[in-house]
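We treat protein structure as text, and this decision shapes the records that our systems exchange. The remainder of this section carries one protein's record, kept here as part of the documentation:
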Amino acid sequence: MLENVPGLLDARFAAYRAQIIAALAGLGYIADWRVLQAPDFGVPQLRPRVLCVGLQRHIAPYFTWPAAGMQRTVTVGEALGELMASGGWEGAAWAAQANRVAPTLVGGSKKHGGPDLGPTRARAAWASWGWTAWAWRTNRRRPASRACRN
C-alpha cells in the first residue's frame, strides 16, 4: 500500500503511476489507485488521500475498496472533547462549538514559521471556532493545573 496526496492522480504523474503499476505487476501483484476521504472513515479532518493497493494475484479477487459512509462522520468536538476535559484543559467547552469536520492542518515546522492553519478558507473555519495560528502557538489550551505563570 502506498499513500500520498490527491495531486498524485494528476495527468502529469500518469507515467509515474504506470511505472509503479508495471513494477508491481512484474512482482506478481495487481494494483489500483483510489482517493479516499478521511471523514468517511472516522477521522474528523478534511484530508483526502490517494492510496495504491497492490495485492498478489491470487488474493486480489477477494479485495474490495471500502465504501464511504460505512461509519458516521465524527466532528472535531466529538473526537477531542472528552480528551480535552479529562486533562483539565482550560476551554474544553470549545469542543461544543467544534461541531463539524476540521480543515486540514498544514505546516507546523519551525522551517515554515510554526503552526499554519491552512489557506484562507481553512483559517476562517478555524477562526470561527476561536482558533488562530497565534492562539494555537501561544495558548495551546494548557491544562489548568499547569497554566503559565507570569
